[in-house]
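Ticket #4471: structure export looks truncated?
Reporter: QA, pipeline team
Priority: medium

Steps to reproduce: submit the single chain below to the structure queue and open the exported record.
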Amino acid sequence: MLLEKTNRFWKAGLIEKNKKTLLFAMIILILPIMTGGSDETPEVSDIEITQQDSEVYSFDKKDSASTERIAEILSDIYEEAVDTNTLGSLDMMRRMVARLNENGYVAVDSGNRVDMAHAEQALAFCRSVDEKEMDELTIIVVMEMGIRKFDLKTEGGSVNIVRGYCQYDQNGSLQNRSTVSYPADFWQYTEEGYLIFEGSYFSDESYILTLSDTPEHTMLRILPLDEKCREYNRKYILPVGYEQNNLFLCNWSEDDFRNLDFYDLFDRFYPMIHSQPVPYVADENLGVGAVYQIPGGLFENVIGAYFNMDSEILRSKTTYIPELAAYEYRPRGFYEVEYPDIAYPEVVSYTENGDGTVTLHINAVYPGGNMSKEFSHTTVIRPLSEDSFQYVSNEIILPEGVHDIWWHSNRLTEEEWKEVYGGT
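Actual output as written to the record:
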């Protein structure tokens, strides 16, 4: 039945419209078959362990001692984080990076949420690459359950990377899980302050699936970022982000909401308000389209919490059923999935306006594409109190030339939805 409807979807010309979406969706279906039907998603540690069999570089005694030293330096912070269930928290990452800073290490967290310690050393190494001088640098990247250690060497403008991954064991000791070595096929220090490098190394498991070496991308912010920018990002931008919504992916204002998808925004805002997932979920049968009637008060309270708009405007841009005082709602289904590897927002500057609003200047950072600014946008927010605010407008600033926010897929229109699900 699903294959039959997919064929109908193709004949209707809808697959061409969302071909990236369908391709990813089909991959989701095929992967369990290739992996023996397992429903479990492998953890990072599992992936790293499988790579260890094919590593092309081994830790020497000096490397081992360095890892043991790092474990010793961070041990009390790690143990406290385990006891308080705060592993991976921003506070823990800050404290670990600060501790490594005190001990002379170049260090940053894996999410680039904390300013790099001893960033001047990283900048000096980048200059050595540009000037084709010999130089060495070690960067420690703090992660939730361990660290990545990058040993970089440059000569004649070329850079070689030895990347080690160490994971905490049950005793709080850092254990080497994998080490790989590769030349940097791509190396760039961007004007936004990011160091980006990538290369490929051989892995038996990866080669079986792709018939090629395993690529590895790394993006580390070197230049510090205003802490106020980070705070604005955490509070106003990151909770919504760029996934399965277009709040920051299109132009709109309080005078013109036409481009916004309020169903997607309901999905993003509901957990922000109620601290739990949206209860209106897609049917387990991929060939069945679920339809709900959400009480008008609930839907309007969720959307109205973050917009200054009249309920009549909201009803005109959605499917409102007056006799039921409810909004018709169709959760995203199989044909509306998005590619998971997407950009993330980073507030890089701000302007506090005289009317009490704040204009945030934001770059979309895409590690998978080696881009520290895939596009930019300015978002205006209106703080109301300590815990409440409203989104006022958004304006996209695209680079010159043809550009597509390729990972995003719109929801099916009513006609497309009926074509796919047959009105069920």
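Status: closed, not a bug. The export was complete when the record was re-opened. Leaving a note from the reviewer for reference: The longest helix spans residues 61-83.
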